[in-house]
Prior knowledge:
Blueprint: H1 3-19, E1 40-43, E2 46-51, E3 60-67, E4 78-84, E5 114-115, E6 123-128, E7 135-141, E8 148-155, E9 162-167, E10 174-180, E11 186-194, E12 200-208, E13 211-212, E14 221-223, E15 227-232, E16 244-252, E17 256-263, E18 268-271, E19 281-286, E20 290-298, E21 305-313, E22 316-318, E23 325-328, E24 333-339, E25 347-353, E26 361-368, E27 375-380, E28 389-394, E29 399-405, E30 410-416, E31 422-424, E32 426-432, E33 436-440, E34 446-449, E35 452-461, E36 465-474, E37 477-484, E38 491-494
Antiparallel strand pairs: 1-38, 2-7, 3-6, 3-8, 4-5, 4-7, 8-9, 10-16, 11-15, 11-17, 12-13, 12-14, 12-16, 17-18, 19-25, 20-24, 20-26, 21-22, 21-23, 21-25, 26-27, 28-35, 29-33, 29-36, 30-32, 30-35, 31-34, 36-37
Amino acid sequence: xxxxxxxxxxxxxxxxxxxxxxxxxxxxxxxxxxxxxxxxxxxxxxxxxxxxxxxxxxxxxxxxxxxxxxxxxxxxxxxxxxxxxxxxxxxxxxxxxxxxxxxxxxxxxxxxxxxxxxxxxxxxxxxxxxxxxxxxxxxxxxxxxxxxxxxxxxxxxxxxxxxxxxxxxxxxxxxxxxxxxxxxxxxxxxxxxxxxxxxxxxxxxxxxxxxxxxxxxxxxxxxxxxxxxxxxxxxxxxxxxxxxxxxxxxxxxxxxxxxxxxxxxxxxxxxxxxxxxxxxxxxxxxxxxxxxxxxxxxxxxxxxxxxxxxxxxxxxxxxxxxxxxxxxxxxxxxxxxxxxxxxxxxxxxxxxxxxxxxxxxxxxxxxxxxxxxxxxxxxxxxxxxxxxxxxxxxxxxxxxxxxxxxxxxxxxxxxxxxxxxxxxxxxxxxxxxxxxxxxxxxxxxxxxxxxxxxxxxxxxxxxxxxxxxxxxxxxxxxxxxxxxxxxxxxxxxxxxxxxxxxxxxx
Length: 506
């Protein structure tokens, strides 16, 4: 092996250890195994998570839960901390004459808002009111692999009232949000958080039912270092559209991004980014008592996509009557009302191409309740759980774990961690039959005190997709929030020293 090849190996190893993104793979196909020949799997050594500012309501109550699963081979050092980002003025937030440029400034305090104590045990914190800032977090050493932070907010009244939840996200350079809106009864913000020491420059692109919405104020938005920008979507365009796809494209730097979708009548929630564009998608964890389900899909290219719709139910894959297929025009957002598609049973939506595969992003807007007692949540398309996925902020009641095996039968192990204030971990194995979705009442730690985390680890069989629902009744309103469970990417494939990487020199 020559010196150039050795240098490439060293560079790939270092990049993998720091970022966890050294391996590339083709888009996932539901029901198929796409695992490449495994190189050495090493724990990531450092990771970042960003939590958006939780609410603009003075009566909002927010809780945070931080958790790192125990991972072999990580050593004994490290830490995981969340700190307040420099808070941006909320007055006039949006894309006005300054094109969304943030104010420079120091963090309010250098003291961490939340510090993890040990892997395997959650740590919690809380805040209240409209002044709660966005959080910037970093974990390294034994706290980095699989680090998960959940932000959960209760809003008792007003626009967006109900339960709002989001998994704090890793910084990236591209995010797709099908399901946003600029309709009169919606107040949607895209939150951008910059964790780095230099400014990030971001373009926000909007796509409606007829294609691109013209906007100049969505271009070249500057997000200052260690700060967060909430941008009101209705300030980016004059058009009112019920269903939009938002693309956050970072020109320089990197950000965390999430959309807060608030409705005057049916509550609201966070809309997390869809999985990267793919020909086949899975949207897991539709609540069995959903009264309305709306699919929003978008294909970024010029080619149209024709998709087959199937519902993975407890008894197998079924085709919803009257919704066998959906046609998505290239560059245009398509929405389909599926009604009460689950009909009282657990379900997940599986989208596959009818003919040729065209990359698509998608999300579901889900409503529970009736009349003036309705509440809304969103389910974006998600990646399968490869090695492990984690859901934080679970309590003894109100948590539902939904697991889907769209292809072959799969066996998974679910572990309930120790509680944040006490309790002993418990594990249980489940079999998810091919083509089905199973709603599981998750195991609870013995002697639980506080909240706990759930870790899902596939053991055999085909790909598994998952979501966790938190539910709590508020004044007769069936408040809820759904978070999907993509793989936590706690380990990364690193080429073996004797592998032939000469192809990289060409």
